[in-house]
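Fold it.
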Amino acid sequence: MSSIDEARKAPYTYVPPIRQEYNSNDLIITVIIDCYYGLNLVKKSIQSVLDQDYSNVELILIDNAAKTDVSRYLSDIHTNNKNVAVIGLLVTVCWNSGVLESKGSVISHINYDDMLSTNCCSKMAALFSENDNCVTASPLPVSINIEGKINSELSEIIKMSNKRSRYIDGKKLAIDLITGAPKKLFSAPGHSMFIRKAELIKFGGFDRNTDISQIIKFAIHGDSGFDPKANLFSRHHEGQLSKQIGKRGMGLCSSLYFIVKSEKIIEMWERLFNNYDVKLLYKFIKINKRAEVKNLSVGLLRNKNIVSFYKLLVVTAKECHFLVFYLLLVSFKEVLLMVRDKILDIIKNKWTL
């Protein structure tokens, strides 16, 4: 079952905007934000959408079993602003309920701790309006810390690895992503794409691995636009939900493998790509499913978080039993490296004295 079909069956409440004002001559862009905690960050994220210089923006706020203070704030925003809807539900991929209720012909979602530059929606609207074959479009991501200050080093890397033209064939983007090509036609942390609603629904909706599937599932169906003058401010900090889940050893091992299967992405590629490219995708999936487990286990061991490592082992055995031996092998090698490093430090300190 695709993610969008799951949303159709999920019980949720939809509270439409109290006031709606749209220019019929311009396309509507819908921005979805799901909220749970982190009120101060939620406020900044929402305000960045309300402050857009483009009038045809619909904001859909999802109360995903939010904390009381966050839920109350969402209600206030809905009451006091135009073109703001609220959805209440508790599901893993909650953005698709917003897709189903949206009025926009172009949709994006941003995390509760990310922000858009004031001109982001107007720049994205221009990309879609100028090119009927444009299926996805992206602003330039900028890394910021918890205080909202720009992480200069990471942001410069992102900028230099996104040397794209205004439009590019989405299939070329996908091949670059899965091969790690030197040209780096796409390099960005997290989900950043605005996607046409028709394609978003047709090809399964947002899923649990949207960072990758935004390219290998959606961008491949047409051109992908890019405007570096628009920005997605992507916040990187220790309080991120993904990092908190990782610390608890609750990462979804091999999530891409299951997404590719449930969303029928291989079938899409077989229709659009040649056999060689499809084999490249298979190879990418194989490498990715191992990398997920390896990166999480190594991080937990390095931080001496034994409890979370044990939880990761249990989750892997339950959900991805075929990776248990690989996890144990990688972990054993990492422990040996840690012991070696410790011995070298002792020897170094002894000789220093």
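The beta strands are 13-15, 29-35, 57-63, 84-88, 106-110, 115-116, 134-144, 167-169, 194-196, 223-235.
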